[in-house]
Structure formats: C-alpha cells, structure tokens
Amino acid sequence: MGVALLALAIGSLPAGLASGSFPEPYHRPTELFAGSLGRPKPSPPRVDSLPPEAVVSHQGNDNFAAAILRFPRQAVGRALAFGRSRSCAAVAALLLSGLLNAHRRLCAEKKAALMEFVQSVETGSYHTQIFTTASLPWKTGTAINPLLRAAYLASAGFRVTLCLPWLHPAEQAIVYPNGIVFETPAEQEAFVRNWLLKHDGEHPPFEISFYPARYDLDRGSILPLGDTSRWMSASAGDLCILEEPEHLNWYHLGRNWRRVFKLVVGVVHTNYISYARMYQPAGAGPLRFINTGVCRAYCDRLIKLSDTLQPLPRSMVCNVHGVRSEFIELGRATSQKQLTGGAYFIGKVLWAKGYSHLIDYLAQEVASGKEPTRIDIFGPKTGDDFEQVEAAAKKAGVALQFCGGCDHSDKAVHSYRVFVNPSQTEVLSTTTAEALAMGKFVLIRRHVSNDFFTQFENTLLFETPDEFLSQLQFALSATPAPLTEEERHTLSWAGATDRFRQSIALCAQLAKPPSLTDRLVAAAFGFAENGGYSGNVMRYLSGAGPVTKQRWLHQQQHFRSSKDVVEVVEKSVEVAPPPTISQQQSIAERTVRTRS
Prior knowledge:
alpha/beta
C-alpha cells in the first residue's frame, strides 16, 4: 500500500522525460542500483536510442495518476522485476528518488519564474489574466468587481485579459434577469462592454474571453467545465488572478495553475463556510478542508477581502475592491442637506443577510412602547426566504417596508440619509461602500468584516440592540459629514487598484515554489478529479451536478483541443441536459424546505 501511495505522488516525473533530459534518477531501474550490486554503472542512454514508448509527451498535464500511466512501460516492468527478485524497499527507494528529483527540478523552474516576475513588477511590464465565476448581466459581486478590476488595471497601463464563464442559452435563461439570452460570446462581450461604459465611463481597451461553464441550480452557482486554464489568452503567462479560487477549483480538471503562470494569486470573495453552517451544517467541515486544500494546491498567494473568511495558507488581508465612479460623483454632487429621507437597506431578502437580527432589534423598540422606526428594504420580492422574512416582520409588528429590487444607481434611494446593514456573513459589503461614497451614514455591526469602514467619519458602529437603536436615532436626526478627497480616493476603484498593485508586489516577494506537501495535495485532487470513469464517480458523489460527466471532454481529441467554447458547452448540455421547468420548481421547493 505504501508503494502504491508513493507511486501516485510522482505526477511530475514524466515532465523531465518529455524535455529530452534524463537525469540519473530517471535511468532504468536496474542501472540505478547497479553500483550497489557490485556491477559498473552504465552511462545514461541517449534519447535517440530509446524506443518510442520511452519518450513521453507530457503536454502540461499534472494529473499524478495519468503521469504514472505514462511512465515508460519498459522501465516500470524492470522495476517490478527487480522488486520481485530483491525487495519492495528497492522499488520504493527508486520511486522516492524520482519524486524528490522531480520536486527539486520543478522548484528550481518555479523559483526562476518568480524571480523573473519580480523584475517585471518593477517595470510594470507583466500581463494579467483574470478568471472569475460569474458574468453580467448577472449582477453579482464576482461579475462586477473583476470587470472593474480589469478596466482600472487597463487604465493604469497594464495588459489585461478577463475570462468569463459562457453558459448555454438554456441556462442563461435561468440565471440572467429579464429573460436576457445571448447566442454567441461576442453578443455577451458587447453587453458587458456597454454596461461598463454606461456605469463607469470609458476605459482603455482590454481583452475579454470566455471559458465553458454550467449552472448548478442546487448551489445557485456557475461551475467551470474541464481545464479552465486552457482558455487563457495566448499572450498571457505572467500573473493569474483567480477570483474565488476555491470555487474555480472545486472540480478543476487539468493543469496546475502554478505550472502555467509565473505567479497565481487568488482573491477570496465569499464566506462559503458561513453559508454552509447556516443551510447545511454537516457540510461545513468538509468544505473547509476542501477550500484549504485547493487553495494550497493551486495558488501561490491569497488575498482575503476581510478577516471574516476562514484561515487559508499563504494569505493576506486587503480590500482590493472599490466603488464605481458614478457613486463617487453622485456623492460629490449631492448636498448633505438634500439627504432628507430615512433609513434603508439594499440586498437580497435572505435570512443570511441579517434580517433576523434587524427584526429583533426593531421588536425591542416596539416592546418599549416607542413608535416603530420605518426601514425601507430594497430587494427582490422573490427568493427562498422572502415570504418567511415578511411574515416574521409582520408578526413582530416592526415597520419594515419591502419596496422591490433596485441598486444605488436608482434615484429612489438617492435621498436616504442612513444605510442600515445588520449582516454578519458579508466578507466586505459593496453596498456599504457605495452608501459611504454617496455621503450617507452607514450603521453597521462592529465585526471583522467591517474593519475597512471604521476609518470613515460617517460610519456608526453597534454591538448590542440598545446601541443599534441609539445610533439609528442619532443618524436620523443628524447630518452626515462631507467626504474628504482622501476618503473618496480610498473608496474609489482607483484607490483599490493602488492597493491591489501593492498587494501583488508583496505577493511576488513572498511567493515561494510549491512545497512537497503542496504537490502531494495537488496529486490527491488531480487523482480524484481525473477525466476517466473514476473522476465521473467522484464528481457524482461530491454533488458536481451538470459538470459530473466529463469523460467525453478528456478522451475525445476533438473536444480536448477545441477552441470553440460554444461547441464544448453544447456537447456538455447534450451529455447532461439542464433541468426542466418542473425540475427547477422541485429543486426550489427542496431548497426552501432545507433552509427552513
């Protein structure tokens, strides 16, 4: 068993064979131990003298199990014959020697790549490739923030490629609002660029590409299909930014990002552990383990937006997100005396957003005999929890007014004075930053997720219900302080880009080649997420949904080398069709029961 486990760890071994160089640990097994048997050790064989099956085409695949299968059959046969005639310990020693030699060689290659990248950071000449897990018109943080990051990096003079998920039109109809559907990636790219121009002004051009993906209705998330790194820009290879690295790598099938790019930095957006504890407590522990493992295996460094996220290896905390220029300009143009409205909140009507706390706080006010303070809620009047939240508010007798969905660009919220955000599951609230940029008070909990906002004068903090009610009454009767230019820059995407560039420079200095532990963890995930039957089984058992069946993508040469993202997604939909309307309703009902 020990020898078998050790064999699985030699995923990098064929890379040396593929390069045409045969260092001593790669000699035929009988030759490696010839000296210890009292026989002269032959010189290394020439590449051109080897049989064809001994020359292996690595093709950048880091799957450890596949690597073992590609090991020259002649060498494996001799190793096994030698083991039968001598001992299994000799074979184990051979395999260990190969593992350590490959590890040393790959460490040297990675170290050289990192040193080269550090030099390019000093000159600003590197190409940034950004992969994210969502795209407009789905107005979620991982669709908007990476787009703005790419735009502002381009404005700073950097070469940037943004890679977005491409969904089949049948799944677009499920995900995107108002029935928006695109037939081609070019149509969606045009939509994304027009949205950026309308909401944040003109930016220098940058490249937008797409990778194949599927929508998992159970998770409410978009999952990559196959080897996402294969869809990188042809000119990229310096810096890779993985927006939500754990999400992108839960079912990663293909090359290790750290082998493809000189530096790989993950930006962690979402508190998946908190959501798991709330809705599926039994899954929180395994999810924490998996998130840590994939980040260790596939990222050189990690940037967490706040310290509310789970501990992750090689991570630092920095807010590298900003506020769109339209909100900065709205705040600049609006006089503080024009803020005549009351209190409001913008967000989805989900228990995870802190509605239970908000109702409890306001219920305490009602219980004390005071007139209930009205808070207007701007969020879709749909979703899994809306009816429950609305019923709970009515039962408690609090004055929550549900006004339907909108965002801060809507004129309906411009005159409000106080933004209330009771959530404790946010990593870093974008709507809180937008409200500050517009010159409003923000009333937020004293929590690590809100540490970034404590530097602003208009931030009001609370811990207890009494503090919440006291701060709320103060904000409704006072006038917010005008923002300084320094505060505006700190909130803006220009300021966020400055912090991002500083973080990347620090990541480049601190990054080190993958440790042996990193490679073994990557081996385990690579072995589990392989392109064969066992990979399909593992994905099925772990609930991969529409991306479970990927054997066709790995074994059919046409699709393995295809550069047509539409073709790949259409084939995937043929293999695993999206849910029908009745199935969607069934899944939604099951989700409501689970969350209840």
